[in-house]
Amino acid sequence: MSNVTFISRTGFQAKNDPNCFNRLHPALKPVAHAKPGELIVFETRDAFDNQFSPKSTPEQVAFADLNLVHPMTGPVYIEGAERGDVLAVTLVDIEPDEYGYTVIVPGFGFLRDQFSEPFIANWQLDRLSATSEQIPGVKISMCAFPGSIGVLPGEIELEKALAREAQLAQAGGFVLLPNAAGAIPADLFGEQGAHKDKALRTIPPREFGGNMDIKQMQVGTTLLFPCFVEGGGLWCGDVHYAQGDGEVSGTAIEMAARVSVRTEIRKGWGEYVKFPQFEGGIQLQRTEPTKFYATTGIPLKARGELPPHLAYLDSPKAAALENLSEDLTLATRNALLQMIDYLVQQRGYTREQALIIAAVAVDLRIGQLVDVPNYVVSAVLPLNIFGD
């Protein structure tokens, strides 16, 4: 094909694929070159790198190797892109695999203190909708997007990210620090790799993009990434068939996919685009439900309760708080817990099934941030997934 850069997927897992990596560092070499305006096609792997199949069980989830998350395809050198520019990436098409999954991994996810057992929903996918035997009565429309997409960090950005994340870990924050186990390419990031102690994990998003999990970054939108290295170093993976805003179980409907994009270089835009931005048109309308049920939450908690984001508050005074001031996370948690109760009590699902439905379909929205001390968050459930 002329004017098309195609980056294929080879091998059963990413460790056997020269076009993949799962740690971030400026030392990554491009696997392909492309000119602005040319079509680039990424064949991507699923987030857990082929550890699950349509017959997978919760027991397999419990023993999954999290060091293999996320295998990314790329990076691609975009000719003419320089530090200080912005790389505009327009999503042209996403072709889904036939299989997807959503999992609850013990110790991970927004409600990790509430869900201690592993769970998996195996989904059958096509370009229209997804269904799962584990979530009966639900049909999820395709609304695909790359859960992770970005450019390479420069040396300055690498050092800043390493420093601030190490500081957060020291303070007791939930951070995944560099870990050579399962890292690829092994010669750069593995046990004997030259950069094993300075290779960023792909889990958190940063100023160069990454694991942003923004469902509105779908086909038709244009993503704007500040460039930090020559050629930009565009990469993507972790594609989601569908997801609710929040991805609250820790996963969406995860899948392998074929992602087609076109790029444009916006010279000098990096002066004011410091973090990823995106633009589009009717894409936001496509995510709006025609019929919904919603719950709300404010920052109230039971006396003595310490949810995960407050675990560092171990003083008796903190433990006795009942109404927290301006705590958006706690308001979100309460809206979500009420939605899970609705799905259990009114729709007949188990709590695990309810969390999966919330992860792939429920949108969390900020109502207001001014009526102190109680911020309001809504959890919006589209009823069309039940055929209502």
Structure summarized in a few sentences:
The protein has 388 residues and is of the alpha+beta class. 16% of the residues lie in helices and 29% in strands.
Question: Care to describe what's here?
Answer:
With 388 residues, this protein is α+β, with helices and mostly antiparallel strands. It folds into two domains: 4-285, Jelly Rolls; 292-386, Endonuclease I-creI (Roll). The chain has seven helices and 18 strands. Strands 1, 4, 6, 7, 8, 9, 12, 14 and 15 form a nine-stranded mixed sheet that branches. Helix 6 packs across helix 7 (351-361). The chain starts with a strand and ends in a 6-residue tail after the last strand. The model is unreliable at 316-320 (pLDDT under 50).
In CATH, what is the homologous superfamily of the largest domain?
Answer: Acetamidase/Formamidase-like domains
Number of strands: 18
Number of helical runs?
A: 7
Oligomer: single chain
State the end-to-end distance. Answer: 45 Å
The SS-based structural class is alpha+beta
What characteristic shape results from the CA principal axes?
A: globular
CATH topology of the largest domain: Jelly Rolls
Strand and helix order: EEEEHEEEEEEHHEEEEEHEHHHEE
Helix content: 10-25%
CATH architecture of the largest domain: Sandwich
Q: How many domain regions?
A: 2
Please report the first level of CATH classification, the CATH class of the largest domain.
Mainly Beta
Mean pLDDT: 95
Radius of gyration: 21 Å
Stretches where pLDDT is under 50 for at least 5 consecutive residues are 316-320
